[in-house]
Design brief:
Layout (H helix, E strand, L loop, with lengths): L8 H9 L3 H13 L1 H22 L2 H22 L4 H22 L4 H28 L4 H10 L9 H33 L5 H14 L2 H17 L13
């Protein structure tokens, strides 16, 4: 019988084909972002929800149309046998928004309050992510470092190399920045509408436009900055301690 390859052969081969930290991060980010199609799939349900609410003033209809659009996109993905990850992300976002709408309704909120509630999860989500990303940088274990670890086969070996830690820290701050900006821009609008200082229709229109405009475009801007950082250096990937040379 021929000798079986070790269990982590695929991981070792991947690390060998990606000899620098920069190459690893570029590959992982390309997979995570989903390209132009992923951007469209993320934007369409929010756009339809916003337009339907502003034109029909019917929250149930707006939710139904956004869900229907996401389901159509999901069926197309399944028929084409391509990854449904980004459509499922959109559906999950709609589902969480619907939960917040129902909570608002159960507390006696009118349709205006419920429409605002739909946008609250996104603001909270970005706040939590931004805080977590920033915290990992402050404590010296940046999130991007674990992308490197997923390829080398050792999730923490990268932390022994100060050069890699510095690079991953800069990249993680760039990932955190879009989340922070979304909260800083959208949060005051939501709070002002919730307090009655601006009209709900105005707030919903602004939040809908900003959710799209500060979504993938801002993420792409951050990615462009990351690519610029990645293009400046070639940081070698150190093999996990004890691995074969």
């Amino acid at each position: 019988m021929s000798e079986q390859p070790p269990a982590d052969a695929d991981t070792t081969e991947a690390a060998a084909s990606l000899e620098t930290v920069e190459a690893v991060v570029r590959r992982q980010l390309a997979t995570a972002l989903g390209g132009r199609r992923g951007m469209i799939e993320a934007a369409v349900p929010t756009l339809l929800f916003t337009v339907t609410w502003l034109t029909q003033r019917d929250l149930t209809l707006a939710l139904m149309i956004s869900v229907a659009a996401a389901l159509v996109l999901l069926v197309v993905r399944l028929v084409q046998r391509s990854t449904p990850q980004f459509v499922l992300n959109a559906l999950f976002g709609i589902g969480i928004g619907w939960v917040f709408v129902r909570i608002s309704a159960s507390r006696g909120g009118d349709e205006d309050a419920q429409a605002l509630a739909y946008f609250l999860p996104g603001i909270l989500y970005n706040g939590v992510y931004g805080l977590v990303f920033a915290l990992t940088c402050v404590i010296g274990w940046p999130v991007v470092g674990f992308m490197v670890g997923s390829v080398t086969g050792d999730p923490t070996a990268w932390h022994h190399d100060k050069q890699v830690v510095r690079l991953c820290t800069r990249l993680t701050w760039l990932l955190a920045l879009p989340c922070v900006l979304r909260v800083v821009v959208q949060g005051p609008i939501w709070l002002a509408a919730h307090a009655g200082r601006i009209e709900t229709d105005t707030a919903v229109a602004l939040l809908g436009v900003l959710k799209i405009g500060l979504g993938w475009p801002l993420q792409l801007a951050a990615l462009g900055a990351m690519v610029w950082v990645l293009g400046r250096n070639q940081t070698p990937i150190e093999p996990p301690p004890g691995s074969a040379a």
